[in-house]
C-alpha cells in the first residue's frame, strides 16, 4: 500500500484507507476481491465500505449477482478538509477566548523546536499585552524561525503591543540588526552581567530561555525553553524588570 498511511493521517481508519486505495487502484470491485486485495477481513469490509459511503468516498453499484463498489474522486478528501478548516476558523476566536480566560494558578511546560518557538511568538500576539525581555540576544532572527518574524512583527504593530528590551551587551557590541527592528524601548545590560540565558515576560507568562547566543536560541540541534504560567510571578518579574531598566544604560 503506497498511500494508505497518508489517508489515515487525513482522518480515515486503517481499514478505510486500505479499501479506498484498493478501489482507487483497481476500480470497481466486489467485497470478496476488496477483502483479498486489501487484506481486510470480509466481515470488516462491509463496515468500512459503509463508512466510506457515508463520507462520500465510495459508491455502491447494485447488480443482480453481486453488488460492487467504486471510489469517489480523491478531491472529495480536500473538499472535506476545507470544510473542517472553515468550521475550525469560525470557532477559533471563541476557543482562544476560552483558553486565555481560564484561570490558571500555576502551570509549567516546555516548548521545543522551531514550532515551539513560533508558538511562543503566537502566545505574545494572543495575550496582547506589553512585552518585557531581559538579556535578549536578538533570537527572533534565528535562521530557523526568521521567516516567521515579519508576520509576527506586523501583528505586534497591529495590536499595538509595546515591546521593552533589556538587551545583552553582545547585541550592542556587535550592532545586531534586531536593534533597528524593535523600536525605541530598549537598553543594554552592562557587559559584566552578560549571560547566555534570557527571560521574556508578557501577560501571565514567564518564558525562560536556557541557552541563547547572539541571534540564536538553544543549541544548533534543538530549541528548548521553559514556560511558567502564573500571573503573580509574571507581575514580580515585571517589577524587577523596571528596577533593572532604571539601572541600565540608555543606549
Question: How would you describe this structure to a colleague?
Answer:
- This protein has 2 domains: 4-77, Winged helix-like DNA-binding domain superfamily/Winged helix DNA-binding domain (Arc Repressor Mutant, subunit A); 106-247, Endonuclease Chain A (Endonuclease, Chain A, 2-Layer Sandwich).
- The strands form 3 sheets. Strands 4-12-9-8-5-6-7 form a 7-stranded mixed beta sheet, sandwiched between helices. It has a 3-stranded antiparallel beta sheet with strand order 1-3-2.
- 47% of the residues lie in helices and 20% in strands.
- It is elongated and about 90 Å long.
- The longest helix is centred in the middle third of the chain and has 27 residues, at 75-101.
- The chain is α+β, with helices and mostly antiparallel strands and 251 residues long.
- A hairpin with a 6-residue loop joins β2 (58-61) and β3 (68-71).
Low-confidence stretches: none
What is the overall number of helices? 10
- Structural class determined from secondary elements: alpha+beta
Assembly type of the shown chains? single chain
Shape: elongated
Q: What is the CATH H-level superfamily of the largest domain?
A: Endonuclease Chain A
Strand content: 15-25%
* CATH top level label of the largest domain: Alpha Beta
Number of strands: 12
Could you describe the largest sheet, including whether it forms a barrel?
7 strands, mixed
| C-alpha termini separation | 62 Å
Amino acid at each position: 500500500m503506497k498511500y494508505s498511511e497518508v489517508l489515515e493521517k487525513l482522518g480515515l481508519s486503517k481499514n478505510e484507507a486500505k479499501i479506498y486505495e484498493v478501489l482507487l487502484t483497481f476500480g470497481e470491485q466486489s467485497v470478496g476481491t476488496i477483502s483479498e486485495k486489501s487484506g481486510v477481513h470480509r466481515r470488516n469490509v462491509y463496515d468500512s465500505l459503509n463508512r466510506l459511503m457515508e463520507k462520500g468516498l465510495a459508491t455502491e453499484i447494485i447488480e443482480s449477482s453481486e453488488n460492487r463498489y467504486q471510489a469517489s474522486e480523491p478531491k472529495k478528501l480536500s473538499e472535506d478538509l476545507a470544510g473542517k478548516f472553515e468550521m475550525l476558523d469560525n470557532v477559533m476566536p471563541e476557543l482562544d477566548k476560552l483558553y486565555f480566560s481560564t484561570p490558571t494558578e500555576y502551570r509549567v511546560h516546555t516548548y521545543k523546536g522551531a514550532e515551539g518557538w513560533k508558538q511562543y511568538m503566537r502566545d505574545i500576539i494572543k495575550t496582547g499585552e506589553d512585552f518585557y525581555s531581559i538579556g535578549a540576544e536578538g533570537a527572533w532572527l534565528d535562521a530557523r524561525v526568521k521567516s516567521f518574524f515579519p508576520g509576527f512583527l506586523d501583528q505586534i504593530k497591529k495590536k499595538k503591543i509595546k515591546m521593552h528590551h533589556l538587551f545583552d551587551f553582545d547585541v550592542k557590541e556587535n550592532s545586531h540588526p534586531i536593534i533597528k527592528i524593535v523600536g525605541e524601548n530598549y537598553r543594554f545590560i552592562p557587559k559584566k552581567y552578560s549571560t547566555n540565558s534570557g527571560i521574556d515576560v508578557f501577560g501571565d507568562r514567564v518564558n525562560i530561555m536556557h541557552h541563547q547566543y547572539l541571534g540564536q536560541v538553544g543549541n544548533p540541534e534543538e530549541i528548548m525553553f521553559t514556560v511558567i504560567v502564573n500571573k503573580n510571578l509574571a507581575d514580580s518579574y515585571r517589577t524587577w524588570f523596571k528596577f533593572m531598566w532604571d539601572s541600565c544604560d540608555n543606549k
